[in-house]
Amino acid sequence: MKFVEAFRHSKRGESKGLNEAEALKYLRFQGETLLGAIHRIARKLPEGGRALVVTHGGILEAAALLGGPRYELDELGGEISFAEGVVFKFDGEKLTGVDVKRLVE
């Protein structure tokens, strides 16, 4: 089971093998791993350069949550759905913000 799904179940009080603290720990680890990869790519870009990084599943949410004041989905406006994305904003090595790109309904 994906860690994001386990975390959602734990928030609803449904036991799916991980408690909330364990799920949150794994989510943060996965987010930090993706954010580290994005940092490595960003360092290679020229001034003002951009890169597209494609991911699958909840790892994008886990990384995007690191850019907010609280590690909760409502900081992003809810779950990130299919074909949606996140712009990660950096000032040097520091993550300064995230901008969720939603599909127009």
Layout of strands and helices, then pairs:
Elements: H1 3-11, H2 20-43, H3 59-64, E1 85-91, E2 94-101
Antiparallel strand pairs: 1-2
Helix pairs in contact: 1-2
Using brief descriptors, characterize the structure shown.
105 residues, alpha+beta, two-stranded antiparallel ribbon, globular
Task: Give a description of the structure.
The N and C termini lie far apart (about 30 Å). The protein has three helices and two strands, in the order H-H-H-E-E. It has one domain. It has a two-stranded antiparallel ribbon with strand order 1-2. About 35% of the residues lie in helices and about 15% in strands. Helix 1 packs across helix 2. The chain is of the alpha+beta class and about 100 residues long.
Count of helical stretches: 3
What number of domains? 1
* Low-pLDDT segments: none
Q: What is the CA-atom radius of gyration, in angstroms?
A: 14 Å
Outline, from the CA principal axes? globular
Percentage of residues assigned to helices: 25-40%
Number of strands: 2
Whole-number mean pLDDT: 82
Strand order of the largest sheet: 1-2
Distance between the termini: 30 Å
> What order do the helices and strands follow?
HHHEE
Please give the largest β-sheet.
2 strands, antiparallel
Q: Helix- and strand-based class? A: alpha+beta
Strand content: 5-15%
